[in-house]
Write a structure and sequence with these properties.
Chain lengths: ~150, ~375
Amino acid sequence: MGIKSFSRKRAIHIMLVYTGGCNGCDIEIVNAVLSPKYDIEQYNVFLTWNPREADILVVTGPVTRFNEDPLIKIYESIPDPKLVVAAGACAVMGGVYKNIHGDIPSEEIMGPVDNVIPVDAKIPGCAVRPKDILSGVVASLPVLLDK
Amino acid sequence: MLDEKKPRETIETEIPLGTVHPAALEPYRVRLFVEDEIVQEAEITIGVNHRGIERIMEGLPVEKANALTEKVCGICSNAHIWNSVRTAELGLGIEIPERASYIRIIMGELERLHSHFLYLGHGCEVLAHETFSMRAFYLRESIMDLLFMIGGNRVQYGCSIIGGVRPRCELTDERIRTLREKLDAVEKGAADFADRVTSDTVFISRIEGVGVIPQKQALKLEVTGPTLRATGVPKDFRTIMPDYEPFDFNVITQQDGDVKANLMMRVLEIFESIKIIRQALDNLPKGPVVDRSWEMVDCDTVHSYIEVPRGTLYHSYALEDGRIRGSIIRTPSMSNIGAMQYACIGDHVTDAQLCIVQCDPCFTCTDRAVEIIRR
C-alpha cells in the first residue's frame, strides 16, 4: 500500500455534481452523507465541493446540454486516481427524459454520463435510496485504494 | 474620518457565482453587484437544467405524461402528479371517490412536512448551525419513512392516477396506526425544535432583519406561497380548493418578511399540516380508492392550480385522442425568483446565499422556459 492509499483510507472525499436531474437523487445523496440516520461519514467518507480535494465523483442527472462542459472540466480537475459513480436512473441510462417522449425527443439531454466521461460504478434507482448509495460507495472503495 | 469635500471613492465589483458552485446545491448563476461589501443589485439566471419536459410531453398518452410530470421535481413530486391528474380529471369531468381525495391530501401534507423540514435543515446549514440542521434532517427521516410506507418509494411515489389513487397507496388500519404514532413523535420533535430555535438568542440575532422583503414589494413581484405569507398576506390556495373544504386549518402569516419570519413560517406550517393529516385520518371515508369507469374524450385547454409547499403550482394542457397538446407548467419558484433577487439587495454579501435560500428555491423544477430566438 502506497502512502497515497494509506492516507486516502482514512479520508475518502466525495464530490457531488448535479447535472440537471429532478433534485431527488441529489437530496438523497446529501441526506445519506450528512444526515444523522445514514451518516456515511462514519466510514471515513466525506462530502466536499472542491474537485481538487475529491477522490470520488458522484454524478446525478442526465447531463443537460449546458452541464456537459462543466462536468468534463470538473472531471479533468480531479487528481488521479479517481473514480466516477453514476447515481440514479438518469445518470445510468438517461432516465425518463431521454427514453420517454411524444412527438419530438428532447434535444437537451447529452447523457447518460457514460457518453461524457468514463464511469466506474453505477447505482440504479429512481431516486437512489440512501442504503444503495452507502453500499455503492463502500463497495467501490477497494477499487480506489488498489489503483 | 471621511473628508466631506472629496467624494468617497467606491469601486463597484461584480461577484459571479455559479453555475456549479460549492455554495449552491443546485446549478444556477447569480451575479452580485457589490459596493463596499453591500449588495446593490442581484441577478439570478437559470436555464442550466433545462430538460424540455413540456416538449417531450407533447403527444404522449395522458397516463404516461402524468408519470413524466412527477419527474419535474424531486422534492414536490406528488404535487406535480396530483395537479397533472387533476387537470385531466377537470377536462374529462371525472369525480373521484372521496377516500381517494382524502389520501391525496394526506400525501400532499406529508410532502409539505418533508419539504419544510428540508428547508429548515438546509437553512440552518447555510447559517452554519450544524446541530439544528441535523435535528431537522433527523425529523425529516421519519416523514420519509411514512412516505416510503404509503407510496413504496422515498421520492417518486406516484400516488395519484386518473380516477383516484394507486391501490398500492390504500391506507390500511395498520398503516393508519403507524401514521398516527409517527406523527405524534414528529409533532413532539418539531415543538422541541421550535422551542430551541426561538430561545437561541444568538441564532435569532443572526437571522433577524436579514433579507427583508416588504409586503408591497412582495405583492408587486407576484410572490407566492410561504414567502408571501411571511410578509403578512394571508393568501393560501388551499382555502379555495374544493378538495380542502372538509378540513379546518389556519392560514399562518408572519409580519416581517425577513429570514426569521420565513423560518418561523415553515415551523408553524408544520403543525398545521399535522393537524390536517389528523383530521383526514379521523374522518377517512370508507369505499374504493379508484374509479376506473371513465372514458377518454377530447377537451380544450384546462387550467389547474394547487398549493404546493413552495406556493401555487399551475398545470394546463388540452387532450386530443388521449394525447397531450400544449402543455404548460408554471412552478412557484418561477415567481419567487424576483423575491430572491430583491432580498439580497442591501444586505452584506455573505448573507446573499441565505437571502436566496430563505425563499425556498427549487430551480430544477423552474427550468422550463424556452427562449425563441428569431433569426
